[in-house]
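Practice problem: predict the structure.
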Amino acid sequence: MNTGVRFAIADNVAWCTLISSELNNSPSVPRFGGVLFRRKVPAYFPNYISTDCDVAARNQCGLADELRSLGLPAGFGIKDSYANLDLSDQGFRCAIEGQWIVSGGEQRSDTRIPPDVSILWPKERHGIEAWIQSSGITAIDVDRFLGSPRAVRSVALVALLKAERIQAGAIINASERVLGISNVFSLDPELDMWPLLKAAIRRRVGHALLVGWEAGEALEAACAAGFEAVHPMRVWIDGRGQT
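Answer:
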């Protein structure tokens, strides 16, 4: 298994645990070859992430039953980190087929930041609130975020501005030996944001290994900016009550 895959999964588990457990009070426990969150989690966050390929595959029926026994709202998600689960017979539908992505620490970015684009790393309340409003990402509660030493220490928001307005951005999560990039967004379809975000991150933190996951056009854009797709992954959604 590619080392970058393991780092990407571990960083994603750390990020989801921070948001779901520490900032939103959903206890996490090791179960069925992964990490299970026992209460409702923020929108677009999973209630389970597989971390052991073989154990998760052997126990997928038990996993579905236990999650359903917790009284979670319909539509909860399972992150199938190795794309080796088949939960369709358990009433789940595959909502996303993506790839874990990696940009090696030895890769330098030659992208020039255009003069009409500025980079912002908001740390104060007003900057964080502006980033959240622009991104539409509601998983971050400003009070809880600023009140968590771990969040303040390990998480950074990056924004690309034009005419002093946020046009694109991402979340950077620092975990053991890597930086995770997630929640990438853009409000300007003409802005080639992935090379610019990568250049901004390299300027800030140097040559750390960058990891994350993407799907569809975002995956294509990330790979065009120098990320490598290293392993498929999926997101399964509980299909109860959905059409």
